[in-house]
């Protein structure tokens, strides 16, 4: 499966999605027509091969391709030992830049590829972020601006239709929303509310902790930390620009849209108090009604209808429903229906609130506690908002696991959600909590049962994505590698679910309510992680997303319609290959060809036409914008639960992926394969300031207990700096220096595929030591990039440095050209010095 040499990359395709021109004579070249051909063969014909003889690995003999892995990945004794014990290992000392670069590096270094469910979830995560951000910037934020502007501008002429204090409340509510949306300058009210509006805007913009405020005639607790833009709205967004300007709304960005939408979806109007009025700030419940808020909610609905703003509000409401499903609060449209049912013709009449309560009766029961509520609030109040937060399954179920349904337990852990998502081993990680709270085990089982039941009717793109995460817990049925029978693989699947859940919460931080209390290379073999449920669940997500975008973006200006069509096709192919694997069959030739065409990237500087970089291969096809979205490191942080009692926030996050090695002893003889693995973790922080993606890199990872069973610890970096000098005439030098005596240091030069071409070993200490290599010089050939330059030396594309058990590889990747570098204690000196020169 050897790809062809590069051709002229110039074409009429756009920069964002530049692809390779096909060469029809080579069916293994990573080009669209070859991918399509292989896919047609895979999906149209049944793999008629009989199941391959099973050769279970004895954990002693060397599986096929191990020599190549040892040569190009440089596994140490500890890592090799864990590989033999578990049948797979994740290398802590091999952090990867991204999932896309990982697959390209596997392609370039000609290793057998293991396609992980983690990498598929990541591609969906990155592209979903971009899709939602695009729809928000082009459609939803402009619709919100039109609705708010229409109501605010019409309020002076319509104020007489409402009680005086209601008109003032409307002025305050809309002024705050518009100011948050437009940023500077402040929007001035018409009825003397500017001072209070500024105070609320300042609190929302500061986004620090919970504050008790006097609003609409009563005290209430507002969690202003929720107003800090996070996910693709925050400063640290890696997949969509938070500063992307909103179409036709000067000054508005995704960041300001987030703040305004948070105000309009999280600031609720209490309609029927039931056990307690909403957001009551005291420790004891207060079931008194709030007539002023009930009338205000009706007035807002009336104003929206009379000004024509309802159409744009419904557009937002529909989009949020398509994104994440149902809401439990009362919408403005429903308020107008309730008003008609109650026969309320004039909001200035006495008893309007009582008639509204009677019309509501026992309806609009809520399951999710999405606001500050005192203990004892067993029957949640009926509330209204302009943009209701969606009640996703995990938010509704989290209340089962904390106070006051589980008295005294104030905080949840990642293991809680992992168990609810179907991973039994998570219970053992909650041993201390189960001892302290004997009822926790039963509540976990209850929450899991409710999650499984609700997932069957899960709504929106969120529900389908969550359904796919739930199915990651399904044990594969059929012929599988023996490592999948062990507890370490169960922990790895738990890591998949925790990370994927965090990705989901990251992208839907605004919409979903939160619970309170390469080239010329050959891949010799491949294996697709047999997570059929994941691929089927993500296929359902794809269908819902296609339907949503057809409604929200009928002209497909975002390109998302075409993207989701392609995503669905790739998921079908992955499922078909995995199904054959589970049947014990070896890969067919079309399946081998397709897996080999995983990822190819040719940078602009590697072609002589001055054309743009090229991205092709089926993994790049999983990203909406293959150049930008695919470069994301996979690092993020997402808050998913708030403890008002502890003033703490529970987060799930991830660091860039690591390289995993897997011994596949199904479908043939045992063989080692390589693929990227997610690195999920949990963190608990203060409500004083919510964390966003820019904070994630600064955190020391708090906890990831599930990874210890399958992750080999990284060897500490020794202090070392390396400078490289290439005279272009056959002499290549590496100058090494340390702060102390390191003993023998081995430096190997690597070629394009990561294979060693030359090696030197010398003792290195505080004085500079030169490793000098002579590179054979050859005459440039006709048609080569060096034609016309006469004799030249082939470039050194990578280095392998070995010091005892420590191994480091630099370069040997199109994404990471070889540069001078320093590690350990000497890294700081490099960071404070000049930028390293690229060779």
User: Strand percentage, roughly?
Assistant: 15-25%
- Measured between the Cα atoms of the first and last residue, the distance is 30 Å
In total, the number of strands is 23
Average pLDDT score: 86
Please, how many helices? Answer: 23
3D shape: elongated
Spans of 5+ residues with little confidence (pLDDT < 50)? 1-28, 604-613, 834-839
Q: Mind telling me the C-alpha Rg?
A: 29 Å
- Chain oligomer state: single chain
Q: Structural class given helices, strands, pairing?
A: alpha+beta
The helix content, as a percent range, equals: 25-40%
Largest sheet: 5 strands, mixed
Textual characterization of the structure:
With 839 residues, this protein is an alpha+beta fold. Among the domains are: 140-392, no CATH class; 720-832, Immunoglobulin-like (Sandwich), CATH 2.60.40. It has 23 helices and 23 strands. Strands 1, 10, 11, 12 and 13 form a 5-stranded mixed beta sheet that branches. Strands 18-15-14-23 form a 4-stranded antiparallel beta sheet. Helix 6 packs across helix 7 (194-206) and helix 9 packs across helix 12. Mean pLDDT is 86; it is low at 1-28, 604-613 and 834-839.
Features:
839 residues, alpha+beta, Immunoglobulin-like, 5-stranded mixed β-sheet, 4-stranded antiparallel β-sheet, 23 helices, 37% helix, 16% strand, elongated, disordered N terminus, disordered C terminus
């Amino acid at each position: 499966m050897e790809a062809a040499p590069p051709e002229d990359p110039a074409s009429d395709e756009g920069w964002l999605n530049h692809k390779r021109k096909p060469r029809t004579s080579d069916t293994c070249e990573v080009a669209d027509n070859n991918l399509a051909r292989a896919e047609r063969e895979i999906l149209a014909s049944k793999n008629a091969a009989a199941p391959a003889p099973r050769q279970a690995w004895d954990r002693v003999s060397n599986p096929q391709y191990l020599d190549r892995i040892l040569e190009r990945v440089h596994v140490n004794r500890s890592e090799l030992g864990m590989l033999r014990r578990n049948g797979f290992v994740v290398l802590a000392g091999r952090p990867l830049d991204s999932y896309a670069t990982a697959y390209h590096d596997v392609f370039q270094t000609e290793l057998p590829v293991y396609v992980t469910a983690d990498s598929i979830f990541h591609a969906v995560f990155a592209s979903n972020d971009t899709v939602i951000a695009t729809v928000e910037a082009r459609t939803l934020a402009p619709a919100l601006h039109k609705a708010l502007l229409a109501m605010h501008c019409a309020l002076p002429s319509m104020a007489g239709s409402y009680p005086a204090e209601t008109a003032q409340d409307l002025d305050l509510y809309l002024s705050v929303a518009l100011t948050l949306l437009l940023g500077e300058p402040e929007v001035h009210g018409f009825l003397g509310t500017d001072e209070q509006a500024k105070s609320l805007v300042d609190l929302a913009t500061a986004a620090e902790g919970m504050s008790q405020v006097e609003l609409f005639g009563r005290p209430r607790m507002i969690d202003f930390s929720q107003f800090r833009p996070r996910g693709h709205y925050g400063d640290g967004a890696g997949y969509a620009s938070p500063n992307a300007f909103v179409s036709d709304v000067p000054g508005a960005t995704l960041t300001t849209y987030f703040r305004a939408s948070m105000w309009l979806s999280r600031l609720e109007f209490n309609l029927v108090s039931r056990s307690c009025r909403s957001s009551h700030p005291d420790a004891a419940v207060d079931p008194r009604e709030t007539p002023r808020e009930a009338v205000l909610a009706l007035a807002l609905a009336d104003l929206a209808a009379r000004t024509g703003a309802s159409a744009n509000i419904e557009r937002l409401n529909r989009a949020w429903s398509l994104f994440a499903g149902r809401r439990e609060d009362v919408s403005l449209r429903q308020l107008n229906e309730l008003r008609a049912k109650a026969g309320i013709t004039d909001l200035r009449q006495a008893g309007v609130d009582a008639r509204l309560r009677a019309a509501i009766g026992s309806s609009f029961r809520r399951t999710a506690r999405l606001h500050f509520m005192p203990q004892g609030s067993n029957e949640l109040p009926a509330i209204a908002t302009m943009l209701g937060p969606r009640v996703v399954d995990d938010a509704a179920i989290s209340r089962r696991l904390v106070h006051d349904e589980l008295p005294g337990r104030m905080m949840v852990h990642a293991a809680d959600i992992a168990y609810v998502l179907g991973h039994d081993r998570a219970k053992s990680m909650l041993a201390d909590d189960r001892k302290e709270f004997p009822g926790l085990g039963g509540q976990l089982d209850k929450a899991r049962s409710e999650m499984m039941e609700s997932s069957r009717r899960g709504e929106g793109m969120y529900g389908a994505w969550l359904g796919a995460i739930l199915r990651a817990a399904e044990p594969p049925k059929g012929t599988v590698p023996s490592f999948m029978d062990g507890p370490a693989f169960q922990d790895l699947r738990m890591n998949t679910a925790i990370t994927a859940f965090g990705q989901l919460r990251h992208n839907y931080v605004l919409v979903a309510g939160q619970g309170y209390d390469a080239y010329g290379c050959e891949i010799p073999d491949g294996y697709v992680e047999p997570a059929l449920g994941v691929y089927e669940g993500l296929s359902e997500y794809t269908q819902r997303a296609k339907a949503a975008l057809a409604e929200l973006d009928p002209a497909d200006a975002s390109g998302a319609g075409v993207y989701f069509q392609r995503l669905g096709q790739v998921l079908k192919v992955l499922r078909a290959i995995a199904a054959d694997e589970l049947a014990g069959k070896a890969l067919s030739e079309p399946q081998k060809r397709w897996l080999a065409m995983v990822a190819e990237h040719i940078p602009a500087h590697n072609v002589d036409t001055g054309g743009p970089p090229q991205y092709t291969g089926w993994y790049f096809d999983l990203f909406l914008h293959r150049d930008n979205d695919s470069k994301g490191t996979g690092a993020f942080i997402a808050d998913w639960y708030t403890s008002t009692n502890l003033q703490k926030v529970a987060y799930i996050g991830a660091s860039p992926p690591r390289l995993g090695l897997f011994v596949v002893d199904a479908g043939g003889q045992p063989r080692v394969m390589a693929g990227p693995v997610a690195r999920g973790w949990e963190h608990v922080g203060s409500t004083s300031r919510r964390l966003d993606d820019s904070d994630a890199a600064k955190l020391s990872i708090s906890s990831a207990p599930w990874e210890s069973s399958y992750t080999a610890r990284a060897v500490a970096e020794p202090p070392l700096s390396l400078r490289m000098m290439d005279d272009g005439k056959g002499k290549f030098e590496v100058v090494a220096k340390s702060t102390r005596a390191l003993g023998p240091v081995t430096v190997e030069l690597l070629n394009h595929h990561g294979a060693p071409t030359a090696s030197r070993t010398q003792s290195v200490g505080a004085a500079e030591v030169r490793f000098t290599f002579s590179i054979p010089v050859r005459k440039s050939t006709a048609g080569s990039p060096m034609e016309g330059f006469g004799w030249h030396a082939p470039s050194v594309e990578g280095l392998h440095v070995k010091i005892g058990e420590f191994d480091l590889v630099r370069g040997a990747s199109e994404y990471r050209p070889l540069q001078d570098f320093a590690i350990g204690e000497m890294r700081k000196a490099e960071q404070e010095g000049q930028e390293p020169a690229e060779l």
